[in-house]
Amino acid sequence: MLAQLLERLRSFSFFDVFKHSSIYFLGTLLTQGLGIVSLPVFTYFMDEAEYGVASIFISYLSVVSVILSFNLHLAISRYFHEEGADVKGFVSTVLTATALVNLALGGLAYYFRVSIAEFINLPVETIAYLLLMGYVGVLYYIFFQLKREQQKSVEISIVNVAWQYSKFALACVGMYLLHETGRVYMGKIIGEMLAAGFFALIFIWRIWPFIQPFHLERKHFQYALTYGLPLIPYSIGGFLLNSFDQWLINSQLGHAEAGLYSFAYKIGMLLLGLITALQNAANPAYHKIMNEQKYEQLGPQVYSIHKLSLLGGVFLLLFAVDLASLLLSFSKNNFQQSLYIVPIIILGYIFYSMSLLYNRYIQYQKVNIYLTVILLASALGNLLLNFYFIPLYGYQAAAYTTLVSYMIMFLLSWLVCDYWLKAPRLPLGKMLLSLLPVLGITLLYYGLGWDQKALELGNMALKLLCFALFAVLIFGQSIQRMLQKGS
After folding, report:
1. Which of helix, strand or coil describes residue 216?
2. What one-character-per-residue DSSP string does 226-277 give?
3. What is the pTM of this model?
């Protein structure tokens, strides 16, 4: 019976897509679970300032990977599908070119490491690790793109999970060994560097069949440069939008405030995992709808994704303080004071998820320049708001500026898709209307002081009741239809 059922499932066109997306999602769950488990460990060993240094260090890694590689590695997945593609020659050229660029620019950055460290407000000793780990990130992206196009989802997920858990294990060893030196953050960084070095060898081993050592071909280099360079503003804009507030807090207010904000932001980012999973799972169906021009099916799909995102957002909004307080039970430091900004961060991610529902059309039409404009405009708004408000109101202001920036992103995405590109209309009115109870719950949350009351059974019962009522409100009609069909 099971064999027959599996054979029927294989006959569906979506089977392979569903299989690979499920494997990716499982890997995401395992790594996000580690992110939750690691918080009480890191906050046990590190105080607010040390946690701030470690968090800011991590936030710069992606920027370093982009700048020190010219984004050349991003062209691999696109070139893979070119007719008559010389994949081996192209990958060899990208690997050689990124190594040379990284060696030249990385050497220059290391020479000026004192000035760079002062500018980004990180200890000088971290700069060398930043440069080395940034290039390991480039090797990972080359590995990831090759294996993704080969549909090696199991291998990608296993490597991702093993890498993250190895980093955590070695970071714990490093923090333990340096816990009495006042430089615990270096224990974490050195431990993660050791793991990165080991996995760099694995990445090279797995991509070696695509490599001709020291091969550099002009036409391949031009292709990669033409594709990668225009995406640098897009990549940098994304990092600015996600991390600039942390950098500015670190620079102007200090490591301790940066650590507090980074902790609260990491709790709020748990919603991002759900949003990403929902978007990835729906992407094949979206392309099918668009290819077949069955636009009447688009509204129900979009609204379902939106409602599930809201459901996850409201749950995290109500119980984030309880979850974080549970994780901080063994912490010696006072990270709880930052938790009351978590609901604002979650509201920002809700608007971000809505913008993604519109941006799918831009990607479908392959007019990615609009994505760059939208992202850079949102990042610029975030930058200006942070420069003005953070010095006045402290790290707390960054949560509100992030919310406003994502609202700008959503507004621009809607205007570009509906009025410039004439995309099929989405159920915008219903989506905006469904935000009203979310805003109401947020006001109730602060009005009753739930941001200051963690792990109290009475309040948790009330919050659970609030969540259940919200679920019935937005899914009531769907539940009713299911009951009618069942009867």
Report:
1. coil
2. HHHGGGHHHHHHHHHHHHHHHHHHHHHT-HHHHHHHHHHHHHHTHHHHHHHH
3. 0.71
The pLDDT tens digits of the residues spanning 38-82 come to 777 887 888 877 877 888 888 788 788 888 887 787 777 667 656
pLDDT at residue 45, rounded to an integer: 84
Give the span between the Cα atoms of 242 and 438, in whole angstroms.
23
Assess contact for 437 and 474: CB atoms under 8 A.
yes
More confident residue, 23 or 91: 91
Contact 365/291 with Cβ under 8 angstroms? no
Of 363, 347, 341, 359, the closest CA to residue 451 belongs to 341
**Which DSSP category does 417 fall into?**
I
Q: Give the C-alpha separation, 151 to 432, whole Å.
A: 37
Residue 23 has pLDDT above 50, yes or no: yes
DSSP string, 359-406: HHHHHHTT-THHHHHHHHHHHHHHHHHHHHHHHHH-THHHHHHHHHHH
Which residue blocks in 394-456 are alpha helix, DSSP H? 396-415, 428-447
CA 146 to chain centre: 21
Closest Cα to residue 35, out of 273, 278, 244?
A: 273
- Assign 32 a pLDDT band (cuts: 50, 70, 90): low
pLDDT of 280 strictly over 50: yes
Give yes or no for a contact between 291 and 429, defined as CB atoms under 8 angstroms apart. Answer: no
Say if CB 279 and CB 356 are below 8 A apart: yes
Residues 453, 320: contact at Cβ < 8 Å? Answer: no
| Tokens, residue 222 | 């031009």
For residues 290 and 296, what is the distance between their CA atoms, to the nearest angstrom?
10
307: Cβ contacts below 8 Å, ≥ 6 apart: 434, 474, 475
In this predicted structure, what is the pLDDT of residue 114? 92
